[in-house]
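Aim 2 progress update. The chain analyzed this quarter is reproduced below.
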Amino acid sequence: MSDVVGPTSHFFVSQRLRLHYVDWGNPAAPAVVLVHGGRDHARNWDWVARDLRGDFHVIAPDLRGHGDSAWAVGGMYAVADFVLDLANLIDALGEKQVILVGHSLGGAISLMYGGIYPERVAKLVAIEGLGPPPALLARLVRREPWERMAEWVGQMRGLAARQPRRYATLADAAARMREENQFLSEEQAHHLTIHSVNRNEDGTFSWKFDNYVRTFAPYRFDVEDMRALWSRIACPVLLVRGEDSWASDPVKDGRIQPFQDARLVTIPKAGHWVHHDQLDRFLAAVRAFVAA
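Predicted structure tokens:
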């Protein structure tokens, strides 16, 4: 029965925004907070949460501008704001210490939180959450600040004119999701799509996320700041990577070095969404890591 019953919906407030999260129950157990990536939502963790809910108190938030959370006024989505939201959620839950599992943007948020509040994190799993690969950063660092700012202004103006895409049916939206991740089965894509879209008044469907989350801040990615934050994480860290993903290997590119206690797991036949592409292997790695 526990596999059938879904989570309950709750809200908290951060920076005057009403933000949503789901709670899978079992409050007496150790808390696990699952943090999704960009243009995703809390229910993308459903398969992971169903497996973990028997042993952990599983919480999954919708980031601001995503899922059923409020959109940011003005359309700015800096990583620092997401970190603030995570800090406010953990405080609202009353948890002194949590296990964090984050994917992509959610992994970056979780790693930053762990570096700011090392005493609040017991274990940390980051699925491809280290940010842009060093090779990409090397190209970006050569761009002048006025070039970055001008590009950002153009992006924001373009998004102001952009209308949310409308899909005639749920099947059409699910097909678009499978184009983005070809590892998804039809069943997975259908489930993710149900929780990813709102039904418009004319009967069409549009993605829930705010289009402004597509933009990148015009400021330079500060590698030294990130490495300093990672070096402060006191708990064990599991870095997860899909063998068929675009993300670079943090052992080979040196990004694993700042961590006090980190190890890498590369999962074969998986792309960027490792927890979707190879669920059983991902869960086995996470459970072994948490139990160690």
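The CA atoms of residues 35 and 102 lie 5 Å apart. Residues 8-143+212-291 form a domain with the Rossmann fold fold (CATH 3.40.50.1820). These observations will guide the mutagenesis experiments scheduled for the next reporting period.
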